[in-house]
Amino acid sequence: MSQPDMNAILAQAQQMQAQLEAAQAEIVASSVVGEAGNGLVKVTMLGSGEVTDVQIDPKVVDPEDVDGLQDLILGAFGDATKKVQDLAQEKMGPLQEGFGGLGGDFGF
């Protein structure tokens, strides 16, 4: 059994690192919209977690039901957060598996 070519392994690791960094940059630059109440409340969130917009349909603004509006806002935030996590898994998952395939644990 021959020794693995360390230069080839290092080159592969560097290439995967570059792909990982590109995927991270793409995630941070991406935007998702979380919704609640069939779109009555929408939250736009960047992949970094920064909220850039909140839209509330006037139909759900009822001074007698502030709790309901708060629940819708929380639901929209939760939906946006899940979409960011799903996007990260979609972009990073294959790359993380690739790092594990090198025979080491890279802490991802």
Automatic annotation (TrEMBL):
Keyword Lipid metabolism in record: no
InterPro entries attached to this UniProt entry: YbaB-like_sf, YbaB/EbfC
UniProt keyword terms in alphabetical order: Cytoplasm, DNA-binding
Example of a GO MF term: DNA binding
Entry function: Binds to DNA and alters its conformation. May be involved in regulation of gene expression, nucleoid organization and DNA protection.
UniProt record similarity statement: Belongs to the YbaB/EbfC family.
Subunit relationships: Homodimer.
Name listed for the protein in its UniProt record: Nucleoid-associated protein JOF33_002458
Species whose genome carries this gene: Corynebacterium freneyi
